[in-house]
Amino acid sequence: MAGDPDILDRELADPQGSAGEESRLDEDDRLKPGFVREVENALDAGDESAAYDLVEPLHPADIADLFELLERKERLALASAISDLMTADVIAELNDFVREDMIEALPAAAAAAITEQLDTDDAVQLIEDLDAEDQQAILAELDAEDRLAIETALSYPDESAGRLMQRELVAVPEHYTVGNLIDDLRSPDRNSDDFPTDFWEIFVVDHRHHPVGTCQLSWILTTPRDVAIADVMKREQTLIPVEMDQEEVALRFQKYGLISAAVVNDDGRLVGQLTVDDIVHIIAEEAGEDALLMSGAGEGDINEPLREAFSARVRWLIANLGTAVVASAIIAFFGGAIEQLVALAVLMPIVASIGGNAGTQTMAVTVRAIAMNQLTRSNTWRVLWRELKVAMMNGVVIAVLIGLAVSVIFTPPLGAVIAAAMVVNIVISGMAGVLVPVAFDRMDQDPAVASSVFVTMITDSMGFFAFLGLAVASGLVSL
Amino acid sequence: MAGDPDILDRELADPQGSAGEESRLDEDDRLKPGFVREVENALDAGDESAAYDLVEPLHPADIADLFELLERKERLALASAISDLMTADVIAELNDFVREDMIEALPAAAAAAITEQLDTDDAVQLIEDLDAEDQQAILAELDAEDRLAIETALSYPDESAGRLMQRELVAVPEHYTVGNLIDDLRSPDRNSDDFPTDFWEIFVVDHRHHPVGTCQLSWILTTPRDVAIADVMKREQTLIPVEMDQEEVALRFQKYGLISAAVVNDDGRLVGQLTVDDIVHIIAEEAGEDALLMSGAGEGDINEPLREAFSARVRWLIANLGTAVVASAIIAFFGGAIEQLVALAVLMPIVASIGGNAGTQTMAVTVRAIAMNQLTRSNTWRVLWRELKVAMMNGVVIAVLIGLAVSVIFTPPLGAVIAAAMVVNIVISGMAGVLVPVAFDRMDQDPAVASSVFVTMITDSMGFFAFLGLAVASGLVSL
User: How much is the pTM?
Assistant: First the structure.
């Protein structure tokens, strides 16, 4: 992996660069469509150097965005046109699906050349989703040390801290002073291969290489040389076990406001570090995925291959078909009543639809609270009671509105029936919206994944049952 | 605001502390219900010192979590029992609603004492949601400098960078060397009031106090004393205008992997800094809020006051009532057809429900892509076409399943009608799921907020219309 480039040689960026770049971005930091079209035109015309000149001033993150906006064929053409701009930063910023697709299209030697530039964490991300054959082809091209580092990382579970961590970090023994550390860091013979490109904290380890403390660089810089690092460091640390799932890692970073954290193996040895710039993507991904999961859209990425998007979604549509059939069976049971009064058929979807909406609201709130660790066994009953109160308030308002309208347009008895059914269904929906996700959470299942199907089934079925049942019970129609 | 505590005096944490703390947390990092109950019992018994002993070993973030898990009365009792543990870190980690409620319950002098300990950004967060009277009471208790800093921050728009930033930062002139900076930082007479408690980068400014570069602390530490900082710093910077909305700020931090960023006013002067530990909360909040917004649950926080939760949600239920009435009107139009064949009433909700589900899937994917800046004018048509293909694949599968089932249970002609209606509705739903949020985005409206209502209206109405309309068109029933 690349070490820190010699700092004195760090290229001074062109001061015009950022101004030029800005004109390619709109006020929301998105690439302007006109600019994207210019690149497309250059690529379509086969003019690689024009494409290069257009893209060269962009920030790596914007180059990555540009790839995502292009069509597949254009992506490969652009990659070939700007091969020396395809830095680690661009690769790391690419959408997972786009990256995987592009790497698969590259020859193994070219993919290995890119992999070698990357820190372990980015290198692992690059090849972990490839199939075994492609992985082996790239690994075979790497030198032994890099290969070993990546193979070790790949031996950890998918989406675990071991996959995400950087092996490169700065660790010092307990007896070190601030002066010792600064001298070490300035020394030109520090092993550049194990040296991180960016670091924000250093780790203090004992003779077994177990972390005993963490020290922010600002504490080092504000402390005289002769002070021992052990006297400045913070002993209370948030250690990350190497097998911990990335969702849990993201929550810890968020909860404790971490910038970096030591990763330890089963024996408690320091084996790597995680830095927040790698974790923010996961925090956003995990927080954002609940909306997708609840809707039944799987990974829900516009770059996801068509077949994967189809199979993720059709599964939930089929599940939903099952719940819709249950609701239909209830309507069929009341078929005779509908034949007597067709207004029932006209109005029944209103009860089901509003109940469904109320249930989805409560479910979204509950799933979010569970994800944020705000809803635990300690306050489940309080939250359920709170949602019940909100549901009753909502139920009364909606019942009055629809009850009055139906009384005027149809008849007052039908208005009374739909009003009562609405209150019943909104209250049931509110309870289902809390209890279904909580039940999944207790069973150690992700509440965002399957709650929708059950909540929808309950709100639909109960909506039809309450409305048609009350119509029969009130003597408005008979079975 | 408090400066950096003298580092040499930094208290060494009790090494048993973290072990003790861990036993209070379950494997998901949540406070164990048994522990929470112990604290509740101590508070109910009025035993403040028992409560103190229980809470004392906790990390500030866990103390904040504990407050959120308690009932309102217990929260105030706990705050009084552990007043000297109510540090800035605890306050900053508290849920907004819980914090606001608790601060309102405190006397102004006590609230001011807490405010004084905080960095500007946390202090602003503490009082920005209070009503004007409470704000004034607290501000009046502060000393002039703190008051001015907070009043300046409050003069920026709600949810802007100016509200979030810390005024405290380290800035040096262009001619400084690494040695000059280190000497300054070690100097005991640095003005502790303007000195940040944590910092990760330093800013280099010109004579007008405009930022010209940023320097990571690791670059300083790895560079000899006599090198000019201007030779190590990065000139390409991501500057944050003080009025920028927090959602945009969060996207920039995420996109460019920032640890900290300079905040500049309209004249380009450096006025503050933002650090990623304050932004991760916003990244998570903004990414997570789409699920809540799409469901129509407003802020959707379990700690939101009942009245606010009710008014946020009932508004969307009423909007949904409107769309349900439109769907009902379509059914009413086909009332005669339903009277001839009650099976239509039994089956019609299936078509609407599956269409609604398919539309929600596509909408969730589209809203997420827009939020992540992945879907822009450059690729709208490609994404629409992609979703259309997914919708057609889904439509065919679902149509075959329901068509066969209805053919067997009812009649083959009815099976053909529902199959055709299903394809039509899923395709329309897929298009609506893309076009509705894109249209809101083009009109500079948050696509997560109002898309649901429109998508639901289209999928419901079209579901009923396609199914009942095709039943009439096929001659199965007459109008």
Answer: 0.87
**Domains of chain A: total:** 3
Asked whether the beta carbons of residue B320 and residue A251 sit closer than 8 angstroms, the reply is no
What is the ipTM score, two decimals? 0.87
B157 and B19 share one domain: yes
| Maximum pairwise Cα distance, chain A | 94
With CA atoms as reference, report the closest residue to A239 among B66, B83, B19, B238: B19
Nearest to A280 among B254, B292, B328 (CB): B254
Tell me which residue range forms the domain holding A438: 305-473
Residues of B within 8 A of A328 (CB-CB) are: 346-347, 349-350
Q: Please report whether residue A164 resides in a domain.
A: no
Angle at CA of residue A229, ends A225 and A234, nearest 5°: 140
Q: Are residues B289 and B387 in the same domain?
A: no
A150-200 confidence digits (pLDDT tens)? 898 899 998 999 999 988 899 999 999 999 999 999 887 665 667 787 899
Q: Tell whether B342 and B289 lie within a shared domain.
A: no
Q: Is A2 inside a domain boundary?
A: no
My answer on whether B46 and B107 are in the same domain is: yes
Determine which of B39, B201, B376 to mutate to test the interface with A (most A C-beta atoms within 10 Å). B376
**Residue whose tokens read 């870190």:** B89
Is residue B331 in some structural domain?
yes
Residues in chain B closer than 8 A to A390 (CB atoms)? 306, 309-310, 313
Distance from CA of residue B394 to its chain's centroid?
32
Distances (CA, A) of B406 to A314, A323, A325, B132, B299: 19, 15, 11, 64, 42
Q: Tell which of A241, A260, A294 closes a domain.
A: A294
Q: Could you report the per-residue pLDDT of B207-261, keeping only the tens digit for each? A: 999 999 999 999 999 999 999 999 999 998 889 999 999 989 998 998 888 999 9
How far apart CA B204 and CA B461 sit, in angstroms, is: 60
Interface test with A, best of B178, B374, B443 (most A CBs within 10 A): B374
